[in-house]
TrEMBL record:
It comes from Azotobacter beijerinckii. Keywords: DNA integration, DNA recombination, DNA-binding. The keyword rRNA processing does not apply. GO terms for biological process: DNA integration; DNA recombination. This is Integrase. SUPFAM superfamilies: DNA breaking-rejoining enzymes. Belongs to the 'phage' integrase family. Gene3D superfamilies: 1.10.150.130, Integrase, DNA-binding domain, Intergrase catalytic core. It comes from the Bacteria. It holds the Pfam family Phage_int_M.
Length: 437
């Protein structure tokens, strides 16, 4: 017959005096207070493990851990045993998880994610992302364990950016958090990615397309360009932008060693050597990989004129005041405004890309791959990109760039639609007949 145990009371625990040997005071159901010769009183819990072996757990010292708290710990241990779990093993695992949680903070995981991504990003892009993390995300989320973060936690910095009307920044931050939390899933820190549910949670700005003139106004634009009375290098920059329809930074930071006159080819590197005190001067082709630009006869002729003006410098389009610095980022648009155009409503330098792309597509001559490759657009279909990323389509692109230059010449006197120009007769005097062959 089991011995009846009289439960302990706080006065009895307090009154227990040390003896020569340690002795227990039993409370029942395995819990007892062990009184040591030193006077230290320790709560112990004696139990049988799920595998049948004897187990002994230490809960803490009395009176720091009172009688009521010790009984609560016993109840938790008995509940675990009823579920087939060993209280000691469960406590050990909880400590491991707590340690891992404190080590795997949002900031720690974010920095690992950033280090992994920086291997494929440009230096400037990596620095921009890190700066945004430090300014916008780390102050709010940095010390929080990723395992504790919920959708509402991740939403807070996005809403803060939204309230400042920094909608583009908010969108970028959402992308970063999605990448960071996906990285945490992949490395076993969390089981699911709460950032996925942020999609659509913040406002987005309506896409504002860069202004471009209707094709019918090409003769007017070309006439004003030819009559431009400003700086010669500026006029040539605008004309070349129209012929090769590359991005502003790709043009402004161009070096002479990128242009091969013999091969009629301009190779824009993925990244350029930075120019001291010139913002973003490290930029090359936007996608971070070299972009090849075939040069038409007309483009080569323009570059020959440019070389007469700046050929002794490193930069193709050197600035007005310092030859080692490029022309201003506003130069092309300022010239268009001087010609009488509103660069926010009529046409801007970037709008030349839209005009060229529209004409090339409307001509019906060129495949989507060729036009997209020449525009230096990134293929969004990952599977398709894996197959075509090496395909330069150079011969067809050479024909296409020459066709575009010929088309602009044809429109100097009288407008003709891209389709009509592409379907002229055999004696049209452009590359169409070669293309058809």
């Amino acid at each position: 017959m089991a011995r009846t145990v009289t439960p302990l009371t706080d006065p009895k625990c307090e009154a227990a005096k040390p003896r020569e040997k340690e002795y227990p005071l039993f409370d029942g159901q395995g819990l007892y207070l062990l009184v040591k010769p030193s006077g230290v009183k320790v709560w112990r819990f004696k139990y049988t493990k799920p595998d049948g072996r004897a187990g002994l757990a230490t809960f803490g010292n009395y009176p720091a851990l009172g009688l009521k708290a010790a009984r609560s710990r016993r109840a938790e241990a008995l509940e675990l045993l009823a579920q087939g779990q060993d209280p000691i093993e469960s406590a050990r695992q909880a400590k491991i998880e707590a340690a891992a949680s404190s080590a795997n903070t949002f900031k720690a995981v974010a920095l690992e994610w950033h280090a992994a991504g920086a291997r494929k990003w440009s230096v400037g892009h990596a620095a921009t992302i890190l700066r945004r993390l430090e300014l916008c995300l780390f102050p709010v989320l940095g010390t929080r364990p990723v395992a504790d973060l919920k959708v509402r936690d991740l939403l807070a910095p996005l809403k803060a950016a939204e309230q400042r009307d920094a909608l583009d920044l908010a969108s970028r931050l959402r992308q970063y958090m999605d990448g960071i939390m996906r990285f945490a899933v992949q490395h076993g820190h969390i089981d699911s990615n709460p950032a996925r549910d942020l999609q659509g949670a913040i406002a987005t700005r309506k896409t504002a397309h860069r202004p471009a003139l209707p094709m019918e106004r090409l003769p007017e634009l070309l006439g004003r360009l030819d009559a431009y009375s400003g700086r010669s290098l500026t006029r040539l920059a605008v004309q070349l932008t129209q012929l090769v329809f590359i991005r502003s930074s790709e043009l402004r930071f161009a070096r002479w060693d990128e242009i091969d006159f013999d091969r009629a080819l301009w190779t824009i590197p993925g990244e350029r050597a930075a120019i001291e005190d010139v913002k973003h001067s490290h930029r090359g082709a936007k996608m971070g990989t070299p972009h090849l630009v075939p040069l038409s006869r007309q483009a080569l002729a323009l570059l020959a004129e440019v070389r007469q003006l700046s050929g002794r410098y490193e930069l193709v389009f050197a600035g007005d005041h310092h030859h080692y610095k490029p022309m201003s980022e506003n130069t092309v648009n300022a010239a268009l405004r001087r010609m009488g155009y509103d660069t926010k409503a009529d046409v801007c330098g970037h709008g030349f890309r839209a005009m060229a792309c529209s004409a090339l597509v409307e001509s019906g001559l060129w495949s989507r791959d060729v036009v997209e490759r020449q525009m230096s657009h990134q293929e969004r279909n990952g599977v398709r990109a894996a197959y075509i990323h090496k395909a330069e389509h150079m011969e067809e692109r050479r024909l296409m760039c020459q066709w575009w230059a010929d088309y602009l010449d044809a429109c100097r006197e009288q407008f003709v639609t891209p389709y009509d120009f592409a379907h002229r007769g055999e004696d049209a005097g452009n590359v169409v007949t070669i293309r058809r062959a």
